Amino acid sequence: MPDVRKLRAGIAMFAAAALCSAALGYGAGGAQAIAPPSTPSLEFANPDSQALFGTAYDEALKNLLQTNTIAADPARYGKSGLLDPDTGIVRAGGGYGQPWTRDASVNSWNATSLLSPALAENTLWAVVDKDAAGNLRVQQDDQQWDQVIWVTAAWHHYLVTGDAGFLGNAYRTAADTLAIREHATTAGFNPRYGLFTGASFFNDGIAGYPAPPADATESVSTGSMPWPGVSTGMFLSTNEVYYAAYTNLANMAEKLGRPGWEVTGYRVKAAALKTAINKHFWNAETGSYDYLLLADGTTGAYQEGTGLAFAVIFGIANPAQARSILAHTTEMPWGIPDTYPNWTRYSDEQPGRHNAIVWPLVQGLWAKALSQQGDQAAFASETARLAKLAGNNSGFWEIYNGNTGVVDGGWQRLGDTVKFHWGSEPDQTWSATAFLDMVHSGLFGMDFTDHGLSFTPDLPAGWGDVTLRDLHYRDADLTIALHGAGTRIRSFTVDGGNVPGNDIPASLRGKHTIDITLTGATAGDRDGDGVTDARDLCPDTAGTTALHGCPDPAHLEAEDALNTGGVKTNVNHTGYSGRAFLDGLWAQGASSSFTVHRTTAAAGTGTLTLRYANANDDARTMTLSVNGRKVRQVAFPKVSGSWDSWGTVTFGGVPLTGANPVVTLSYESGDTGSINLDWLEVR
């Protein structure tokens, strides 16, 4: 079997874009004390927005700051001499116990540098070592962009923290590392085109490439760099990551007062690379950027999700090009895909691991680009998709099927006769930090500069007012409230007083409340249910006019429930309705919750009917609760000996109080669980 880690490592590349967008600003300012870890809370006035986005935000915080924060082993991670052994590091996630260079970079710029600066710094130093002469250098895990993306993450970390001591060491590390890449014989610089060669930023598996440079059976390797066409080829996202690295290295040099020729040298290299990218990758016929340019001059007018996001975020695309990219990019039902369309050796039924399939990191970068361009409806849709993927599947997984939203690791070829199906790992840190960045840099529009923190929020119609509490920024403890809807700021106040501009200084200390009132929300109907977003109580889930756009409880598909404790969507049995069914109700703590929408608050009882599968030898039990209060234990009789067979069971006398009671089935102490769920109906 090929190395799972190598195939998935390409994902980290996606993250670079998010970091770089914040990284491109610089200016004067002094170092600030590093803030303590921050565990903010996200509170929506709209209960449905809270259930969708607030729940996903809480899960993402837990993923980063609890599940994936581990102790730092100095013998293993202290090779730079800068590691603090008493501060933890962030691992890549479930199934991946190390920080990995790309993951450390992605997660730091997406969220860790803001939420826990000391943890982010330690994680960044955990992937740096020294050469024989004692020079600091970024470790290369697998591909060349492991080293390059670190540069942008480090500059972003400085902008968030103002830590001048960190910046000095980061500059030494970044300058030495880029020098290594410039002189590399493999994945180095091609002077003929003025571009860097080597695998695309995200796609370390050959499933992410058409033929050529691959072939129909992926006979050389499941990884990408062993393929000559990949190692000598040039790819959009990789060159954009180099462009951002040069830009941010110049920012570092300027801030540190390095000689002018150093600053100018890096800016000249960045400008030349930007010119080469637009010359060789922009395709006027498609109105977008090509994915690849092979050494023999072969081009590929395919869609690369990270490459398109980076072009917008890093400012490589001019305003007209950026608008054109957004107009010509294809999105799948559950998000923007990695690469698109399906290569001929893959299909919708068997999508390639790095082909027409959804990685949350790509979604996060694309959402950043959409928000930056003011495409509010598209930003709202992409953010809601990732929130739903997390909510439907007990947290943030590595990869999802772009058509069904089911947890799916994708397919891989291995010669003429073998095609195998990858697993998708749970608790993926960069999937969670992608969502955190959607909230911080998209919804709240946070942009970190050397001078302070500025805001360009993007609050979609129908989401309702939202408040982010207890966010630490340098020496300040912030509560940030968004009112209204739109992207245009009507008023900006700090502690009740009007403030010129839409920013706060880096020197701000203590507790402060920022209130931002927005206007100019996009008029539309995102879910296509005939209720405009501004009037829709559930604007990101198709519903009925009678229920103000919310789903009718007469039939609720189980895969749309909020699931925790390991419950996730699946399609590996037949006979289910909708896009999937739920499995994972196999251990204590597993639960599925359904919101029953009504036009007005009411008291009384109702009847529930559930469709389920039980191929065990006996009846199974679960606990039924409403609004968090236990009602009773309920039984699910055996249906048949096959998990492809489905039955129904009805429970009467269920108390349903309030306008939007939440019905939960959970595996509690004393239950036997182990059923699959298909749908729920309420009368």
TrEMBL record:
Supply the alphabetized keyword list.
Answer: Signal
- Keyword match Signal: yes
Q: Which GO terms describe its molecular function?
A: carbohydrate binding
Q: Which residues form the signal peptide?
A: 1-33
Domain of life assignment: Bacteria
Q: Which GO terms describe its biological process?
A: carbohydrate metabolic process
**Protein name, per record:** Glycogen debranching protein
Short name of any one Pfam family annotated for the protein: Glyco_hydro_65C
Which residue intervals define the domain CBM6 in the entry?
Answer: 554-683
Q: Does the keyword Signal apply?
A: yes
Q: Which InterPro entries match?
A: 6-hairpin_glycosidase_sf, 6hp_glycosidase-like_sf, CBM6, Galactose-bd-like_sf, Glyco_hydro_65_C
Task: State the species of origin.
Answer: Amycolatopsis bartoniae
